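Comment thread on ticket #2218

A.B. wrote:
> Attaching the input chain for the structure job we discussed in standup.
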Amino acid sequence: MARTKLHAEVAGTVWKVLKRAGDEIAADDAVVILESMKMEIPVAAPARGRVVELYVKEGDLVKEGEPIAVLDTA
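C.D. wrote:
> Ran it. Output below, let me know if you need it in another format.
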């Protein structure tokens, strides 16, 4: 397994955290949903694997490019 970091694609607020550390994920599963300019933007896993660590919680403000989570991916 490879360690992969997920990054915010846009600046916004963490609206929902859908996965927790230890959760199994499939490719394209949304890990968190960001809210930016009244739009919901899912941040999805690039491959199947497991969530290792989350850097954010609901309500946090994130900048574009900021790390959101670490995944173990296949």
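A.B. wrote:
> Thanks. Noting for the ticket: Residues 34 and 61 are 9 Å apart (CA to CA).
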